[in-house]
Amino acid sequence: MPYTLLLLMFVLSIGFAAKDLFISKYLYLTNMKNIYERNVSVSHAILLEMEGGMLTSKQLKGNYGEILTHSEMVNQDEIRLEVTFKRDEELFLPTTVVYNRETKHIISWE
């Protein structure tokens, strides 16, 4: 009887540890998926704005969320583009990109 109780406690403790490990891995993967979706959405919006080449403010709705863009001239060759991502009423910090209007090369990305 004592060995059975000891074995039961051992199996239960391993089961609870496995459950906690599974939940933490699931939460990590869900968080990483959300981060990658945000990065893809912001990168796509930046590429669209660079291809368009006009100074505008736009609001785009995508599969993963809503994107607000605002562009302005820094000097004759450079444009600053500010991209804000919003999902499920959660607003993320804006991403600021400065790129060359002629060559379409990104100078800085913050």
Automatic annotation (TrEMBL):
Name of this chain's protein: Uncharacterized protein
Domain of life (superkingdom): Bacteria
Organism of origin: Rossellomorea aquimaris
